[in-house]
Amino acid sequence: SLPLQAIKSLSELHQKPSHLRFQYGTAGFRTLGSTLDSVLFRVGVLAALRSKRLDGRTIGVMVTASHNPEEDNGVKLVDPRGEMLEASWEAHATVIANALTTNDLLDALDSLVRTLKIDLSKPARVVYARDTRPSGESLISALQDGLKAIGAEARDAGITTTPILHYLVKAINTKGAKDSYGEDSEEGYYTKLSEAFKKLVAGRRRLDPLIVDCANGVGASAAAKLAQYLGDSLTLRLENTSITTPGALNHACGADFVKTTQKLPPSLTDHLRPGQRGCSLDGDADRLMYYYLDERGTFRMLDGDKIAALVAAFIVEQVKLAGLSDEIKVGVVQTAYANGASTKYLAERLPVKCVPTGVKHLHHAAEHYNIGVYFEANGHGTVLFSPATQEKLATHEPSTPAQSTALNHLINLTQLINQTVGDALSDMLLVEVVLAHKSYSGVEWDSLYADLPNRLVKVVVGDRNAFKTEDAERRLVSPPGLQTKIDDLVRKYEGGRSFVRPSGTEDVVRVYAEAALKAQADELAFRVAGLVY
Ligand code: NG1
Ligand code: ZN
């Protein structure tokens, strides 16, 4: 049975603020860091129960609020294969987090154990990590109390990136197996990525140094370590590495700043020369945005859609060169936020699917292809190779030296890419590989297609739950009548497209619009926002 006494006495030290309601959303629990103490304690207990339910396989816990402000924090669970928590457990997490008193918590846990038939005699194994946020340290000790209360075997992965924690979870759970994901250590991660990178760029002209904006977050230490493993195969110039300066995290820098303002972080003005490539990570290094300044000094952004286009085209080409086009089908997954021009470019070349916002939707849809490329426009994404495809690559007999080379490239890509989750550092190396192979600078990459001007605005409404969508969030079904009004407006704009959906992470409704001209995209967004308000 549950160790009620231990849970009870430790839970008293981590009482739930009575006036707050927590929700396990698309990014786990995420809110002001100072309010999350009870949530972390309970997540510790829950992670252990999830592990027991899965026969003692290791569960991950990541404490981060990603690109959000420094005072925010959050926590999410990682399933044994390194993927997001199974959807049905999101509701269990919400129930456990909202139990009012310690006794209510014990009742909720007991009922969970009974309904899910959790065998409490099974071992519980959990690995956890956090980003650089100041609130992280005390939240980790609340988590540790939860793990201790239920007697879990816990492993502290320290301060690291979200994708490294996902990597560790998968590596731990595949240790010693035929499909081992790699050494279950940070060193194992850096070694795996850097060795695959070196093989993929061997014999090619060295790329110019790359400027990396680390968002003053955990990506700074990870990128510095990665740089050591890369040696002279790629030079990284790290900027915004002030991880201990109060207030610096994600402030006027990082991938989210770049995507939402469509501007160069001011701190990079003196560092990025025209034509030079730069990129920004977010606060937990799972999102990536590229950019460069053209010859007139104008900022040119290369977002998640541009990364998807670059990478998908390259993989299709390598599959063809390997002589495997008939057997291996490549597909792309996007959300409604993908730039219309990117969808057009991709759909002319390969199957493209649109799914609702949220990594879990993209990830699951990408699993349906032999090789699935998924990226959100904001720079979160990865490439998945199905188990059968990996097997095919490992066993296929090439008939020419050219086929053999392409086959090896594909095998090395399976090693370079962090297939558990979007990973800014792994994606950055992937982009660099393609640029090296194609001898592209930012200019050639950028010219794959021209972005349609677009505008994203937030609208604070009385009740965002009144907004219900269909067709992968591209159309509103409620409030009634609103979609017709949006359609009428959109028709007035050349190349116009607009949609409205409630945010899953903030208490707002988002309005997206694009049109042939920038001023029109802005106008359309604001007029649609006017309808919503
Ligand atoms: P919401 O708040 O549901 O729009 C945002 C991002 C998502 C995803 C999640 C999780 C946009 C428009 N939305 O979701 O793409 O990254 O956060 O972090 O960028
Ligand atoms: Zn992030």
Quickly name the level 1 CATH class of the largest domain: Alpha Beta
> The CATH topology of the largest domain, please?
Alpha-D-Glucose-1,6-Bisphosphate, Chain A, domain 3
Class from helix and strand fractions: alpha/beta
Helical proportion, percent range = 40-55%
Report the sheet-strand fraction.
Answer: 15-25%
Q: How many distinct beta strands?
A: 19
Bound molecules: 2-acetamido-2-deoxy-1-O-phosphono-alpha-D-galactopyranose, zinc ion
Global morphology: globular
Rg for CA atoms = 23 Å
Main sheet summary? 5 strands, mixed
What is the correct CATH architecture of the largest domain?
Answer: 3-Layer(aba) Sandwich
Domains (count): 4
Q: Number of helical segments? A: 18
Strand order of the largest sheet: 1-3-2-4-5
State the low-pLDDT regions, or none.
none
The average pLDDT is 97
SSE inventory with pairings:
Elements: H1 4-11, E1 29-32, H2 37-53, E2 59-63, E3 72-78, H3 87-98, H4 102-115, E4 125-130, H5 136-150, E5 153-159, H6 162-173, H7 186-201, E6 210-213, H8 219-230, E7 236-239, H9 254-261, E8 278-281, E9 288-293, E10 299-302, H10 304-321, E11 330-334, H11 340-347, E12 352-354, H12 359-366, E13 371-375, E14 381-385, H13 387-395, H14 401-416, H15 424-438, H16 442-446, E15 454-459, E16 468-470, E17 475-478, H17 482-490, E18 497-502, E19 509-514, H18 518-532
Parallel strand pairs: 2-4, 4-5, 6-7, 6-8, 11-12, 11-13
Antiparallel strand pairs: 1-3, 2-3, 8-9, 9-10, 13-14, 15-19, 16-17, 18-19
Helix pairs in contact: 1-5, 2-3, 2-5, 3-4, 7-8, 7-14, 7-15, 10-11, 10-14, 17-18
Bound molecules: 2-acetamido-2-deoxy-1-O-phosphono-alpha-D-galactopyranose and zinc ion (ZN).
Zinc ion binds at residues 66-67, 282, 284, 286-287.
Pathway: Nucleotide-sugar biosynthesis; UDP-N-acetyl-alpha-D-glucosamine biosynthesis; N-acetyl-alpha-D-glucosamine 1-phosphate from alpha-D-glucosamine 6-phosphate (route I): step 2/2
Organism: Crucibulum laeve
InterPro entries: A-D-PHexomutase_a/b/a-I, A-D-PHexomutase_a/b/a-I/II/III, A-D-PHexomutase_C, A-D-PHexomutase_C_sf, A-D-PHexomutase_CS, AMG1_II, AMG1_III, PAGM
